[in-house]
Amino acid sequence: MQQRLARGEAAALGELYDRFASLVHGLAHRVVGEEHAADAITRDVFAHLWQHPDAYDPGEGPLRSWLAALTNRLAVQRLRTTETAALARGGHGTTEDLERKLRHASVAARADYIVQSMPAPLRAALELAYFQRRDYHQTATDLGVTDDEARRRLRLGLQLLATAHDAETPGAPPGIGGAA
């Protein structure tokens, strides 16, 4: 795919956009909290990929993680710029409030990335337990698995989510854990 992009094949960019646009847009929206800004960041991420296809190094990890890291970096930059400008115009808050907001947005984006990336059985167990308020026994019944398997899925899913606060998690997409 990278070679196709380097040759200027627009179809390759279209395929990547179809595959990853919802991930990129969702992460951007989670950080900036505004649809128009998330749309702009999504365009910027794919424009960067088109203009610099060699910026992604497959040896560093999956393209999905690289795109998530790039999205987070651009979204945090945009949020920092807009919030700093608002503070300069006499807006409410302090630079400490801004940094806290940036950290919170980055952790939320990382948690979204983790949930979207986890295997479907773990995600399904967490969704039943969290959104439908099922205990492990009800979750097991709904999923058609044993109680032990439901507990294992819930425990593993929660352990993965707990890494959202840890910027240095092994295997984590670079730049997702912190305010970048």
Automatic annotation (TrEMBL):
One example of a Gene Ontology biological process annotation: DNA-templated transcription initiation
Keyword Transcription regulation appears in the UniProt entry: yes
Stored InterPro entries: RNA_pol_sigma-70-like (IPR039425), RNA_pol_sigma-70_dom (IPR014284), RNA_pol_sigma70_r2 (IPR007627), RNA_pol_sigma_r2 (IPR013325), RNA_pol_sigma_r3/r4-like (IPR013324), WH-like_DNA-bd_sf (IPR036388)
Recorded superkingdom: Bacteria
UniProt key word Transcription regulation: yes
Pfam families referenced in this protein's UniProt entry, alphabetically: Sigma70_r2
MF terms (GO), sorted A to Z: sigma factor activity
Record-annotated RNA polymerase sigma-70 region domain positions: 16-81
Family label: Belongs to the sigma-70 factor family. ECF subfamily.
The protein, known as: RNA polymerase sigma factor
Record lineage: Bacteria, Bacillati, Actinomycetota, Actinomycetes, Kitasatosporales
